[in-house]
Amino acid sequence: MIRIENLHKSYPMGKDALHVLKGINLHIKEGEFVSIMGSSGSGKSTLLNIVGLLDVHDEGEYYLNDQLIKDMNEKKAALLRNKFLGFVFQSFNLISYKTALENVALPLYYKGMSRKERLIVAMEYLDKVGLKAWANHLPNELSGGQKQRVAIARALVTKPKVVLADEPTGALDSTTSDSVMQLLKDINNEGMTVFVITHEEEVAEQTKRIVRLKDGLIISDKYTKASKAV
Amino acid sequence: MFDLDRWREIFQSINKNRLRSVMSGFTVAFAILLFTLLFGIVTGLSNSFKTAFSDDAQNSMEVRVRKTTIPFKGMQTGRKIQLKNEDYNFVGNEYESKIQYQSAIIYKNFTLKYKNEAGTYSVNAVNPDNQFLEKTIIEEGRFLNERDLRKNSKVIVIGRLIKQDLFGEKPALGKRLNMNGSSYLIIGIFSDEGGDNDERIAYIPITTAQMIYGNNDYISQIVVGYNPDLSLDGAIAFGNKMERDLRKRMNIHPDDQSALSVRNMADANKGVGQFLAILYALVILVGSGTLVAGIIGISNIMIFVIKERTKEFGIRKALGAKPSSIVGMVVQESVLITAISGYFGLFLGTYILTLIGDSLEKDYFIKDPSVSSGIVFGATVVLILSGLIAAYVPAKRAANIKPIEALRAD
Q: What's the CA gap between B98 and A108, in Å, rounded?
Protein backbone atom coordinates (compact mmCIF):
# COMPACT_ATOMS: atom_id res chain seq x y z
CA MET A 1 0.00 0.00 0.00
CA ILE A 2 2.76 2.40 1.03
CA ARG A 3 6.30 1.83 -0.16
CA ILE A 4 9.07 4.23 0.68
CA GLU A 5 12.62 3.83 -0.55
CA ASN A 6 15.58 5.86 0.57
CA LEU A 7 13.47 8.91 1.36
CA HIS A 8 15.24 12.19 2.13
CA LYS A 9 13.79 15.48 3.22
CA SER A 10 15.47 18.63 4.37
CA TYR A 11 14.17 22.07 5.20
CA PRO A 12 16.15 25.14 4.25
CA MET A 13 17.11 27.12 7.33
CA GLY A 14 18.69 30.29 6.09
CA LYS A 15 21.94 29.30 4.40
CA ASP A 16 22.03 25.79 5.82
CA ALA A 17 19.53 23.03 5.40
CA LEU A 18 18.01 21.01 8.22
CA HIS A 19 18.23 17.39 7.16
CA VAL A 20 15.16 15.82 8.74
CA LEU A 21 14.77 12.48 6.99
CA LYS A 22 18.03 10.78 6.09
CA GLY A 23 17.04 7.79 4.02
CA ILE A 24 13.89 6.08 5.18
CA ASN A 25 12.89 2.68 3.85
CA LEU A 26 9.41 1.54 4.84
CA HIS A 27 6.88 -0.83 3.40
CA ILE A 28 3.34 -0.92 4.75
CA LYS A 29 0.95 -3.52 3.40
CA GLU A 30 -2.76 -3.18 3.11
CA GLY A 31 -4.61 -3.73 6.40
CA GLU A 32 -1.68 -2.98 8.65
CA PHE A 33 -1.94 -0.93 11.84
CA VAL A 34 1.38 0.84 12.14
CA SER A 35 2.60 3.38 14.62
CA ILE A 36 5.60 5.61 14.19
CA MET A 37 7.31 6.41 17.46
CA GLY A 38 9.91 8.99 18.11
CA SER A 39 10.75 11.98 20.20
CA SER A 40 10.00 15.41 18.86
CA GLY A 41 12.42 16.31 16.11
CA SER A 42 12.87 12.72 15.07
CA GLY A 43 11.13 13.42 11.77
CA LYS A 44 7.95 11.46 12.38
CA SER A 45 5.58 14.31 11.52
CA THR A 46 7.56 15.10 8.40
CA LEU A 47 7.23 11.47 7.37
CA LEU A 48 3.48 11.56 7.88
CA ASN A 49 3.14 14.77 5.92
CA ILE A 50 5.01 13.27 3.02
CA VAL A 51 2.98 10.09 3.16
CA GLY A 52 -0.16 12.26 3.37
CA LEU A 53 0.88 14.30 0.31
CA LEU A 54 0.77 17.40 2.44
CA ASP A 55 4.46 17.94 1.76
CA VAL A 56 6.92 16.81 -0.91
CA HIS A 57 10.13 14.82 -0.44
CA ASP A 58 13.49 15.72 -1.90
CA GLU A 59 15.02 12.36 -2.76
CA GLY A 60 14.00 8.73 -2.93
CA GLU A 61 10.82 7.11 -4.10
CA TYR A 62 7.35 6.96 -2.65
CA TYR A 63 4.65 4.68 -4.00
CA LEU A 64 1.10 5.11 -2.80
CA ASN A 65 -1.19 2.29 -3.92
CA ASP A 66 1.54 1.30 -6.42
CA GLN A 67 1.50 4.75 -7.92
CA LEU A 68 4.79 6.64 -7.97
CA ILE A 69 4.37 10.01 -6.33
CA LYS A 70 6.42 12.45 -8.33
CA ASP A 71 6.02 16.00 -9.61
CA MET A 72 2.80 16.48 -7.72
CA ASN A 73 1.01 19.72 -8.21
CA GLU A 74 -1.60 20.87 -5.73
CA LYS A 75 -4.46 19.82 -7.93
CA LYS A 76 -3.24 16.24 -8.43
CA ALA A 77 -2.31 15.96 -4.76
CA ALA A 78 -5.79 17.14 -3.77
CA LEU A 79 -7.39 14.49 -5.96
CA LEU A 80 -5.20 11.71 -4.54
CA ARG A 81 -5.76 12.84 -0.96
CA ASN A 82 -9.45 12.87 -1.52
CA LYS A 83 -9.39 9.41 -3.08
CA PHE A 84 -6.88 7.46 -1.01
CA LEU A 85 -6.25 9.24 2.27
CA GLY A 86 -8.12 10.14 5.43
CA PHE A 87 -6.60 12.45 8.03
CA VAL A 88 -6.97 12.60 11.79
CA PHE A 89 -5.11 15.45 13.44
CA GLN A 90 -4.03 16.10 16.99
CA SER A 91 -5.94 19.37 17.08
CA PHE A 92 -8.98 17.82 15.32
CA ASN A 93 -9.06 20.55 12.63
CA LEU A 94 -12.81 20.66 12.34
CA ILE A 95 -14.30 23.70 10.59
CA SER A 96 -15.76 25.71 13.43
CA TYR A 97 -18.80 27.11 11.67
CA LYS A 98 -19.98 23.78 10.31
CA THR A 99 -21.96 21.21 12.28
CA ALA A 100 -20.56 17.78 13.01
CA LEU A 101 -22.60 16.36 10.14
CA GLU A 102 -21.43 19.02 7.66
CA ASN A 103 -17.83 18.52 8.71
CA VAL A 104 -18.09 14.82 8.02
CA ALA A 105 -19.81 15.46 4.68
CA LEU A 106 -17.19 17.96 3.46
CA PRO A 107 -14.77 15.47 1.81
CA LEU A 108 -17.72 14.08 -0.12
CA TYR A 109 -18.47 17.58 -1.41
CA TYR A 110 -14.97 17.69 -2.88
CA LYS A 111 -15.59 14.25 -4.30
CA GLY A 112 -18.54 15.71 -6.18
CA MET A 113 -21.32 13.81 -4.44
CA SER A 114 -24.78 15.39 -4.32
CA ARG A 115 -25.80 17.09 -1.10
CA LYS A 116 -28.62 14.74 -0.31
CA GLU A 117 -26.48 11.67 -0.81
CA ARG A 118 -23.50 12.93 1.14
CA LEU A 119 -25.60 13.89 4.15
CA ILE A 120 -26.98 10.37 4.26
CA VAL A 121 -23.49 8.84 4.01
CA ALA A 122 -22.09 11.30 6.57
CA MET A 123 -24.88 10.44 9.01
CA GLU A 124 -24.05 6.76 8.58
CA TYR A 125 -20.45 7.38 9.59
CA LEU A 126 -21.40 9.63 12.50
CA ASP A 127 -23.58 6.79 13.70
CA LYS A 128 -20.61 4.48 13.40
CA VAL A 129 -18.55 6.65 15.80
CA GLY A 130 -21.57 6.91 18.09
CA LEU A 131 -22.37 10.56 17.54
CA LYS A 132 -25.59 10.41 15.56
CA ALA A 133 -27.35 12.39 18.30
CA TRP A 134 -24.76 15.17 18.01
CA ALA A 135 -25.01 15.55 14.26
CA ASN A 136 -26.32 19.10 14.33
CA HIS A 137 -23.97 20.43 16.98
CA LEU A 138 -21.11 22.77 16.21
CA PRO A 139 -17.59 21.61 17.15
CA ASN A 140 -17.36 23.95 20.13
CA GLU A 141 -20.38 22.21 21.65
CA LEU A 142 -18.56 18.88 21.64
CA SER A 143 -15.98 17.44 24.04
CA GLY A 144 -12.45 16.72 22.87
CA GLY A 145 -13.14 13.01 22.47
CA GLN A 146 -16.30 13.71 20.53
CA LYS A 147 -14.46 16.13 18.24
CA GLN A 148 -11.81 13.50 17.54
CA ARG A 149 -14.49 10.96 16.75
CA VAL A 150 -16.11 13.41 14.34
CA ALA A 151 -12.68 13.85 12.75
CA ILE A 152 -12.31 10.09 12.44
CA ALA A 153 -15.74 9.82 10.83
CA ARG A 154 -14.64 12.53 8.42
CA ALA A 155 -11.43 10.65 7.65
CA LEU A 156 -13.39 7.48 6.91
CA VAL A 157 -16.29 8.87 4.97
CA THR A 158 -14.60 8.72 1.57
CA LYS A 159 -13.61 5.06 2.18
CA PRO A 160 -9.89 5.84 1.86
CA LYS A 161 -7.12 3.27 1.48
CA VAL A 162 -5.13 4.65 4.38
CA VAL A 163 -6.07 6.59 7.50
CA LEU A 164 -3.27 8.84 8.70
CA ALA A 165 -3.46 9.91 12.32
CA ASP A 166 -1.06 12.49 13.71
CA GLU A 167 -1.00 12.18 17.50
CA PRO A 168 -4.72 11.42 17.55
CA THR A 169 -4.79 11.20 21.33
CA GLY A 170 -2.33 13.99 21.99
CA ALA A 171 -4.99 16.42 23.19
CA LEU A 172 -7.17 13.90 25.03
CA ASP A 173 -7.25 12.48 28.56
CA SER A 174 -6.56 8.79 29.04
CA THR A 175 -10.18 7.56 29.09
CA THR A 176 -11.13 9.31 25.88
CA SER A 177 -7.76 8.27 24.43
CA ASP A 178 -8.72 4.67 24.99
CA SER A 179 -12.06 5.06 23.28
CA VAL A 180 -10.43 6.78 20.29
CA MET A 181 -7.81 4.06 20.05
CA GLN A 182 -10.52 1.42 20.29
CA LEU A 183 -12.24 3.11 17.36
CA LEU A 184 -9.04 3.03 15.31
CA LYS A 185 -8.61 -0.65 16.19
CA ASP A 186 -12.14 -1.37 15.07
CA ILE A 187 -11.49 0.37 11.79
CA ASN A 188 -8.32 -1.63 11.31
CA ASN A 189 -10.18 -4.83 12.08
CA GLU A 190 -12.50 -3.98 9.22
CA GLY A 191 -9.45 -4.05 6.94
CA MET A 192 -8.43 -0.42 6.74
CA THR A 193 -4.74 0.46 6.76
CA VAL A 194 -4.07 2.77 9.72
CA PHE A 195 -0.91 4.80 10.17
CA VAL A 196 -0.51 6.48 13.53
CA ILE A 197 2.12 8.85 14.78
CA THR A 198 2.63 9.09 18.49
CA HIS A 199 5.16 9.54 21.22
CA GLU A 200 3.12 7.65 23.82
CA GLU A 201 4.14 4.05 24.47
CA GLU A 202 0.61 3.06 25.58
CA VAL A 203 -0.78 4.20 22.28
CA ALA A 204 1.91 2.53 20.23
CA GLU A 205 1.45 -0.73 22.09
CA GLN A 206 -2.13 -0.93 20.92
CA THR A 207 -1.06 -0.95 17.26
CA LYS A 208 0.29 -4.01 15.49
CA ARG A 209 3.61 -2.72 14.34
CA ILE A 210 5.89 -0.12 15.86
CA VAL A 211 8.45 1.75 13.78
CA ARG A 212 10.88 3.79 15.87
CA LEU A 213 12.50 6.85 14.39
CA LYS A 214 15.52 8.71 15.68
CA ASP A 215 17.28 11.61 14.01
CA GLY A 216 15.70 10.89 10.67
CA LEU A 217 16.48 7.21 10.54
CA ILE A 218 14.51 4.08 11.43
CA ILE A 219 16.16 2.44 14.41
CA SER A 220 13.72 -0.41 14.94
CA ASP A 221 10.71 -1.96 13.25
CA LYS A 222 8.83 -4.62 15.26
CA TYR A 223 5.48 -6.33 15.35
CA THR A 224 3.73 -6.08 18.73
CA LYS A 225 1.95 -8.60 20.93
CA ALA A 226 -1.32 -7.16 19.69
CA SER A 227 -0.54 -8.36 16.19
CA LYS A 228 0.19 -11.87 17.37
CA ALA A 229 -3.04 -11.97 19.35
CA VAL A 230 -5.14 -11.72 16.20
CA MET B 1 -21.18 27.29 -13.93
CA PHE B 2 -24.00 27.51 -11.43
CA ASP B 3 -23.18 25.33 -8.50
CA LEU B 4 -25.80 25.17 -5.80
CA ASP B 5 -23.41 23.55 -3.34
CA ARG B 6 -20.86 26.27 -3.90
CA TRP B 7 -23.50 28.90 -3.15
CA ARG B 8 -24.53 27.01 -0.07
CA GLU B 9 -20.92 27.01 1.13
CA ILE B 10 -20.71 30.74 0.49
CA PHE B 11 -23.94 31.62 2.25
CA GLN B 12 -22.90 29.51 5.20
CA SER B 13 -19.58 31.26 5.36
CA ILE B 14 -21.20 34.70 5.12
CA ASN B 15 -23.84 33.82 7.63
CA LYS B 16 -21.41 32.43 10.17
CA ASN B 17 -19.14 35.43 9.83
CA ARG B 18 -21.71 38.18 9.81
CA LEU B 19 -19.65 40.95 11.35
CA ARG B 20 -16.86 40.40 8.87
CA SER B 21 -19.25 40.34 5.92
CA VAL B 22 -21.12 43.42 7.11
CA MET B 23 -17.88 45.30 7.65
CA SER B 24 -16.56 44.60 4.19
CA GLY B 25 -19.97 45.32 2.69
CA PHE B 26 -20.21 48.59 4.57
CA THR B 27 -16.99 49.93 3.06
CA VAL B 28 -18.27 49.37 -0.44
CA ALA B 29 -21.81 50.54 0.26
CA PHE B 30 -20.53 53.76 1.78
CA ALA B 31 -18.19 54.47 -1.11
CA ILE B 32 -20.95 53.92 -3.64
CA LEU B 33 -23.39 55.98 -1.58
CA LEU B 34 -21.05 58.96 -1.61
CA PHE B 35 -20.34 58.48 -5.30
CA THR B 36 -24.06 58.38 -6.11
CA LEU B 37 -24.88 61.45 -4.04
CA LEU B 38 -22.03 63.43 -5.52
CA PHE B 39 -22.89 62.45 -9.05
CA GLY B 40 -26.60 62.97 -8.56
CA ILE B 41 -26.16 66.47 -7.20
CA VAL B 42 -23.92 67.52 -10.04
CA THR B 43 -26.39 66.07 -12.52
CA GLY B 44 -29.04 68.13 -10.76
CA LEU B 45 -26.93 71.25 -11.09
CA SER B 46 -26.42 70.56 -14.76
CA ASN B 47 -30.17 70.03 -15.18
CA SER B 48 -30.86 73.44 -13.68
CA PHE B 49 -28.47 75.04 -16.13
CA LYS B 50 -30.08 73.27 -19.01
CA THR B 51 -33.61 74.35 -18.07
CA ALA B 52 -32.47 77.88 -17.41
CA PHE B 53 -31.43 78.10 -21.05
CA SER B 54 -34.01 75.89 -22.68
CA ASP B 55 -36.96 78.31 -22.50
CA ASP B 56 -35.84 79.76 -25.79
CA ALA B 57 -34.33 77.73 -28.59
CA GLN B 58 -30.77 76.61 -27.80
CA ASN B 59 -29.55 77.83 -31.15
CA SER B 60 -31.02 81.33 -31.27
CA MET B 61 -29.19 84.57 -32.11
CA GLU B 62 -30.68 88.00 -31.67
CA VAL B 63 -29.63 91.08 -33.64
CA ARG B 64 -30.22 94.13 -31.45
CA VAL B 65 -29.77 97.78 -32.35
CA ARG B 66 -29.60 101.01 -30.33
CA LYS B 67 -27.69 104.27 -30.72
CA THR B 68 -24.12 104.59 -31.95
CA THR B 69 -21.45 105.42 -29.39
CA ILE B 70 -18.42 105.64 -31.69
CA PRO B 71 -18.15 108.20 -34.52
CA PHE B 72 -17.72 106.55 -37.91
CA LYS B 73 -17.13 107.90 -41.42
CA GLY B 74 -17.83 111.45 -40.31
CA MET B 75 -21.08 110.59 -38.57
CA GLN B 76 -21.69 111.71 -35.01
CA THR B 77 -22.37 109.45 -32.08
CA GLY B 78 -25.92 109.11 -30.84
CA ARG B 79 -27.30 108.18 -34.25
CA LYS B 80 -30.27 105.85 -33.88
CA ILE B 81 -29.88 102.61 -35.81
CA GLN B 82 -33.02 101.17 -37.36
CA LEU B 83 -33.36 97.63 -38.75
CA LYS B 84 -35.54 97.33 -41.84
CA ASN B 85 -37.01 94.58 -43.99
CA GLU B 86 -34.04 94.79 -46.35
CA ASP B 87 -31.72 93.90 -43.47
CA TYR B 88 -33.94 90.97 -42.65
CA ASN B 89 -33.81 89.79 -46.25
CA PHE B 90 -30.05 90.37 -46.38
CA VAL B 91 -29.53 88.06 -43.42
CA GLY B 92 -31.82 85.44 -44.97
CA ASN B 93 -30.04 85.50 -48.33
CA GLU B 94 -26.48 85.93 -47.17
CA TYR B 95 -26.41 83.09 -44.62
CA GLU B 96 -29.08 80.81 -45.99
CA SER B 97 -27.12 77.62 -45.42
CA LYS B 98 -26.29 78.53 -41.84
CA ILE B 99 -29.81 79.39 -40.77
CA GLN B 100 -32.56 77.07 -39.66
CA TYR B 101 -35.19 79.61 -38.55
CA GLN B 102 -35.54 83.33 -39.03
CA SER B 103 -37.96 85.90 -37.71
CA ALA B 104 -38.24 89.66 -37.47
CA ILE B 105 -39.92 91.14 -34.41
CA ILE B 106 -41.64 94.41 -33.66
CA TYR B 107 -42.38 94.95 -29.98
CA LYS B 108 -45.61 96.77 -29.12
CA ASN B 109 -47.90 97.20 -26.13
CA PHE B 110 -51.63 97.30 -26.77
CA THR B 111 -54.86 97.07 -24.85
CA LEU B 112 -56.80 93.96 -25.78
CA LYS B 113 -60.52 93.97 -25.19
CA TYR B 114 -63.16 91.29 -25.29
CA LYS B 115 -66.66 92.34 -24.24
CA ASN B 116 -66.22 93.91 -20.79
CA GLU B 117 -62.78 92.46 -20.08
CA ALA B 118 -59.67 94.37 -21.08
CA GLY B 119 -55.96 94.44 -20.34
CA THR B 120 -52.69 95.80 -21.67
CA TYR B 121 -50.32 93.23 -23.05
CA SER B 122 -47.08 92.90 -24.99
CA VAL B 123 -47.91 92.29 -28.61
CA ASN B 124 -45.10 90.95 -30.76
CA ALA B 125 -45.42 91.20 -34.50
CA VAL B 126 -43.42 88.29 -35.90
CA ASN B 127 -42.76 85.82 -38.72
CA PRO B 128 -44.04 82.21 -38.51
CA ASP B 129 -40.60 80.83 -37.57
CA ASN B 130 -40.82 82.74 -34.29
CA GLN B 131 -42.85 79.82 -32.94
CA PHE B 132 -39.73 77.62 -33.02
CA LEU B 133 -37.36 80.33 -31.85
CA GLU B 134 -39.43 81.06 -28.77
CA LYS B 135 -40.41 77.39 -28.31
CA THR B 136 -44.04 78.43 -28.27
CA ILE B 137 -46.32 75.48 -27.54
CA ILE B 138 -49.63 75.61 -29.42
CA GLU B 139 -52.49 74.47 -27.15
CA GLU B 140 -55.39 75.21 -29.50
CA GLY B 141 -55.69 76.27 -33.12
CA ARG B 142 -52.50 77.19 -34.95
CA PHE B 143 -49.63 79.69 -35.10
CA LEU B 144 -49.23 82.39 -37.75
CA ASN B 145 -48.37 81.18 -41.25
CA GLU B 146 -46.97 82.65 -44.46
CA ARG B 147 -50.45 83.20 -45.85
CA ASP B 148 -51.39 85.43 -42.91
CA LEU B 149 -48.30 87.51 -43.65
CA ARG B 150 -48.92 87.74 -47.38
CA LYS B 151 -52.51 88.88 -46.87
CA ASN B 152 -51.70 91.19 -43.94
CA SER B 153 -54.45 89.32 -42.10
CA LYS B 154 -55.75 90.66 -38.84
CA VAL B 155 -55.26 87.47 -36.89
CA ILE B 156 -53.83 86.99 -33.42
CA VAL B 157 -52.35 84.15 -31.37
CA ILE B 158 -52.74 84.74 -27.65
CA GLY B 159 -50.99 83.36 -24.62
CA ARG B 160 -52.72 81.01 -22.22
CA LEU B 161 -52.93 83.67 -19.49
CA ILE B 162 -54.42 86.31 -21.79
CA LYS B 163 -57.12 83.81 -22.65
CA GLN B 164 -57.67 83.21 -18.95
CA ASP B 165 -57.79 86.96 -18.19
CA LEU B 166 -60.24 87.84 -20.93
CA PHE B 167 -62.29 84.67 -21.44
CA GLY B 168 -61.98 82.76 -18.18
CA GLU B 169 -63.11 79.20 -18.76
CA LYS B 170 -65.07 80.05 -21.92
CA PRO B 171 -63.68 79.12 -25.35
CA ALA B 172 -61.68 81.84 -27.09
CA LEU B 173 -60.66 80.25 -30.35
CA GLY B 174 -62.47 81.82 -33.32
CA LYS B 175 -63.65 84.80 -31.27
CA ARG B 176 -62.74 88.37 -32.18
CA LEU B 177 -60.62 90.66 -30.00
CA ASN B 178 -60.51 94.38 -30.12
CA MET B 179 -56.99 95.75 -30.28
CA ASN B 180 -56.58 99.51 -30.39
CA GLY B 181 -59.82 99.83 -32.29
CA SER B 182 -59.21 97.07 -34.83
CA SER B 183 -60.80 93.66 -34.65
CA TYR B 184 -58.52 90.59 -34.69
CA LEU B 185 -59.52 86.95 -35.11
CA ILE B 186 -58.08 84.58 -32.51
CA ILE B 187 -56.52 81.69 -34.45
CA GLY B 188 -54.47 80.07 -31.71
CA ILE B 189 -53.75 79.83 -28.01
CA PHE B 190 -50.29 78.93 -26.76
CA SER B 191 -48.36 78.14 -23.63
CA ASP B 192 -44.68 78.65 -22.91
CA GLU B 193 -42.34 77.06 -20.40
CA GLY B 194 -40.62 80.38 -19.83
CA GLY B 195 -43.10 81.42 -17.14
CA ASP B 196 -46.07 83.74 -16.70
CA ASN B 197 -44.64 86.71 -18.56
CA ASP B 198 -44.12 84.60 -21.65
CA GLU B 199 -47.75 83.52 -21.51
CA ARG B 200 -49.10 87.09 -21.38
CA ILE B 201 -47.96 87.84 -24.91
CA ALA B 202 -49.91 87.96 -28.16
CA TYR B 203 -48.47 87.39 -31.62
CA ILE B 204 -49.67 89.09 -34.82
CA PRO B 205 -48.22 88.94 -38.36
CA ILE B 206 -45.31 91.36 -38.82
CA THR B 207 -46.64 92.59 -42.14
CA THR B 208 -49.96 93.55 -40.54
CA ALA B 209 -48.19 95.53 -37.85
CA GLN B 210 -45.97 97.35 -40.34
CA MET B 211 -48.98 98.29 -42.43
CA ILE B 212 -51.34 99.42 -39.69
CA TYR B 213 -49.00 100.88 -37.06
CA GLY B 214 -46.56 103.05 -38.89
CA ASN B 215 -46.87 102.18 -42.52
CA ASN B 216 -43.12 101.54 -42.80
CA ASP B 217 -40.74 98.58 -43.01
CA TYR B 218 -39.10 99.05 -39.63
CA ILE B 219 -38.16 96.06 -37.45
CA SER B 220 -37.24 96.07 -33.74
CA GLN B 221 -35.11 92.95 -33.77
CA ILE B 222 -34.03 90.09 -36.02
CA VAL B 223 -33.88 86.62 -34.49
CA VAL B 224 -32.32 83.66 -36.25
CA GLY B 225 -31.86 80.06 -35.25
CA TYR B 226 -28.54 78.84 -36.58
CA ASN B 227 -28.30 75.51 -38.34
CA PRO B 228 -27.99 72.88 -35.62
CA ASP B 229 -25.46 71.03 -37.75
CA LEU B 230 -22.98 73.81 -36.97
CA SER B 231 -20.54 73.14 -34.16
CA LEU B 232 -20.55 75.51 -31.21
CA ASP B 233 -17.38 77.13 -32.49
CA GLY B 234 -18.84 77.31 -35.98
CA ALA B 235 -21.96 78.98 -34.61
CA ILE B 236 -19.91 81.48 -32.65
CA ALA B 237 -17.88 82.29 -35.75
CA PHE B 238 -21.11 82.69 -37.72
CA GLY B 239 -22.51 85.09 -35.10
CA ASN B 240 -19.34 87.18 -35.15
CA LYS B 241 -19.33 87.31 -38.94
CA MET B 242 -22.98 88.37 -39.10
CA GLU B 243 -22.26 91.11 -36.56
CA ARG B 244 -19.30 92.40 -38.62
CA ASP B 245 -21.24 92.25 -41.90
CA LEU B 246 -24.28 94.06 -40.53
CA ARG B 247 -22.16 96.83 -38.96
CA LYS B 248 -20.39 97.33 -42.24
CA ARG B 249 -23.66 97.35 -44.14
CA MET B 250 -25.23 99.91 -41.83
CA ASN B 251 -22.16 102.15 -41.55
CA ILE B 252 -21.44 101.40 -37.95
CA HIS B 253 -17.96 101.41 -36.43
CA PRO B 254 -16.71 97.78 -36.33
CA ASP B 255 -16.31 97.94 -32.53
CA ASP B 256 -19.57 99.69 -31.72
CA GLN B 257 -21.17 97.15 -29.44
CA SER B 258 -23.98 99.44 -28.45
CA ALA B 259 -25.17 100.32 -31.94
CA LEU B 260 -25.55 96.75 -33.15
CA SER B 261 -24.85 93.52 -31.39
CA VAL B 262 -25.61 89.86 -31.90
CA ARG B 263 -26.53 88.03 -28.75
CA ASN B 264 -25.53 84.45 -29.49
CA MET B 265 -26.81 81.49 -27.44
CA ALA B 266 -23.81 79.57 -28.70
CA ASP B 267 -21.56 81.77 -26.54
CA ALA B 268 -23.63 81.06 -23.47
CA ASN B 269 -23.90 77.39 -24.36
CA LYS B 270 -20.19 77.13 -24.73
CA GLY B 271 -19.59 78.78 -21.38
CA VAL B 272 -22.10 76.56 -19.62
CA GLY B 273 -20.79 73.51 -21.43
CA GLN B 274 -17.25 74.22 -20.32
CA PHE B 275 -18.36 74.91 -16.78
CA LEU B 276 -20.31 71.67 -16.59
CA ALA B 277 -17.49 69.70 -18.19
CA ILE B 278 -15.09 70.95 -15.52
CA LEU B 279 -17.62 70.20 -12.81
CA TYR B 280 -18.13 66.68 -14.12
CA ALA B 281 -14.41 66.11 -14.43
CA LEU B 282 -14.00 67.20 -10.83
CA VAL B 283 -16.77 64.92 -9.65
CA ILE B 284 -15.44 61.98 -11.60
CA LEU B 285 -12.06 62.61 -10.01
CA VAL B 286 -13.43 62.86 -6.47
CA GLY B 287 -15.96 60.08 -7.05
CA SER B 288 -13.35 57.73 -8.43
CA GLY B 289 -11.19 58.56 -5.45
CA THR B 290 -14.03 57.52 -3.16
CA LEU B 291 -14.53 54.32 -5.13
CA VAL B 292 -10.83 53.54 -5.03
CA ALA B 293 -10.80 54.11 -1.28
CA GLY B 294 -13.71 51.68 -1.01
CA ILE B 295 -11.92 49.13 -3.13
CA ILE B 296 -8.76 49.44 -1.06
CA GLY B 297 -10.92 49.05 2.02
CA ILE B 298 -12.41 45.81 0.84
CA SER B 299 -9.00 44.57 -0.33
CA ASN B 300 -7.64 45.11 3.17
CA ILE B 301 -10.53 43.28 4.72
CA MET B 302 -10.17 40.43 2.24
CA ILE B 303 -6.47 40.09 3.02
CA PHE B 304 -7.30 39.87 6.69
CA VAL B 305 -10.19 37.49 6.13
CA ILE B 306 -8.10 35.16 4.03
CA LYS B 307 -5.30 35.17 6.57
CA GLU B 308 -7.83 34.31 9.21
CA ARG B 309 -9.17 31.45 7.10
CA THR B 310 -5.79 30.04 6.04
CA LYS B 311 -6.14 27.15 8.46
CA GLU B 312 -9.62 26.39 7.18
CA PHE B 313 -8.25 26.31 3.65
CA GLY B 314 -5.54 23.93 4.83
CA ILE B 315 -8.18 21.61 6.27
CA ARG B 316 -10.20 21.80 3.10
CA LYS B 317 -7.15 20.98 1.03
CA ALA B 318 -6.26 18.04 3.25
CA LEU B 319 -9.78 16.78 2.62
CA GLY B 320 -9.30 17.05 -1.11
CA ALA B 321 -10.15 20.62 -2.11
CA LYS B 322 -8.35 21.77 -5.24
CA PRO B 323 -6.69 25.20 -5.03
CA SER B 324 -9.01 26.42 -7.77
CA SER B 325 -12.08 25.52 -5.74
CA ILE B 326 -10.78 27.55 -2.80
CA VAL B 327 -9.93 30.58 -4.92
CA GLY B 328 -13.30 30.28 -6.65
CA MET B 329 -15.15 30.13 -3.37
CA VAL B 330 -13.43 33.17 -1.89
CA VAL B 331 -13.74 35.24 -5.06
CA GLN B 332 -17.39 34.40 -5.46
CA GLU B 333 -18.06 35.35 -1.87
CA SER B 334 -16.26 38.64 -2.28
CA VAL B 335 -18.03 39.49 -5.53
CA LEU B 336 -21.35 38.68 -3.93
CA ILE B 337 -20.69 40.93 -0.95
CA THR B 338 -19.40 43.81 -3.07
CA ALA B 339 -22.21 43.53 -5.58
CA ILE B 340 -24.98 43.38 -2.99
CA SER B 341 -23.60 46.09 -0.76
CA GLY B 342 -22.69 48.21 -3.76
CA TYR B 343 -26.23 48.05 -5.02
CA PHE B 344 -27.47 48.77 -1.54
CA GLY B 345 -25.36 51.94 -1.54
CA LEU B 346 -26.55 52.82 -5.00
CA PHE B 347 -30.23 52.42 -4.18
CA LEU B 348 -29.86 54.21 -0.88
CA GLY B 349 -28.14 57.05 -2.71
CA THR B 350 -30.83 57.25 -5.39
CA TYR B 351 -33.51 57.09 -2.72
CA ILE B 352 -31.94 59.94 -0.76
CA LEU B 353 -31.66 61.94 -3.99
CA THR B 354 -35.35 61.57 -4.77
CA LEU B 355 -36.19 62.33 -1.15
CA ILE B 356 -34.23 65.58 -0.98
CA GLY B 357 -34.65 66.42 -4.67
CA ASP B 358 -37.59 68.80 -4.26
CA SER B 359 -36.17 70.82 -1.41
CA LEU B 360 -32.86 71.15 -3.24
CA GLU B 361 -34.60 72.62 -6.26
CA LYS B 362 -36.19 75.32 -4.15
CA ASP B 363 -33.18 76.36 -2.12
CA TYR B 364 -30.04 75.37 -3.96
CA PHE B 365 -30.61 75.62 -7.70
CA ILE B 366 -30.41 71.84 -8.10
CA LYS B 367 -33.06 70.22 -10.25
CA ASP B 368 -33.92 66.51 -10.52
CA PRO B 369 -30.69 65.16 -9.03
CA SER B 370 -30.28 61.65 -10.40
CA VAL B 371 -27.79 59.15 -11.76
CA SER B 372 -28.05 57.84 -15.29
CA SER B 373 -28.34 54.16 -16.10
CA GLY B 374 -24.94 54.31 -17.76
CA ILE B 375 -23.38 55.36 -14.47
CA VAL B 376 -25.24 52.61 -12.66
CA PHE B 377 -23.96 50.07 -15.16
CA GLY B 378 -20.42 51.40 -14.97
CA ALA B 379 -20.45 51.34 -11.19
CA THR B 380 -21.66 47.74 -11.23
CA VAL B 381 -18.85 46.67 -13.48
CA VAL B 382 -16.33 48.49 -11.30
CA LEU B 383 -17.78 46.84 -8.21
CA ILE B 384 -17.71 43.32 -9.54
CA LEU B 385 -14.23 43.79 -10.91
CA SER B 386 -13.00 45.23 -7.64
CA GLY B 387 -14.58 42.41 -5.65
CA LEU B 388 -12.88 40.00 -8.01
CA ILE B 389 -9.45 41.56 -7.75
CA ALA B 390 -9.69 42.26 -4.04
CA ALA B 391 -10.28 38.59 -3.36
CA TYR B 392 -8.36 36.93 -6.16
CA VAL B 393 -4.86 38.07 -5.32
CA PRO B 394 -4.81 37.10 -1.63
CA ALA B 395 -6.93 33.99 -2.21
CA LYS B 396 -4.58 32.75 -4.90
CA ARG B 397 -1.68 33.19 -2.52
CA ALA B 398 -3.48 31.43 0.32
CA ALA B 399 -4.54 28.55 -1.91
CA ASN B 400 -0.97 27.98 -2.99
CA ILE B 401 0.40 27.68 0.52
CA LYS B 402 1.30 24.06 1.16
CA PRO B 403 -1.49 22.48 3.21
CA ILE B 404 0.96 21.56 5.93
CA GLU B 405 1.87 25.20 6.42
CA ALA B 406 -1.75 26.28 6.22
CA LEU B 407 -2.69 23.76 8.90
CA ARG B 408 0.00 25.10 11.17
CA ALA B 409 -1.36 28.64 10.84
CA ASP B 410 -3.45 30.01 13.65
A: 77
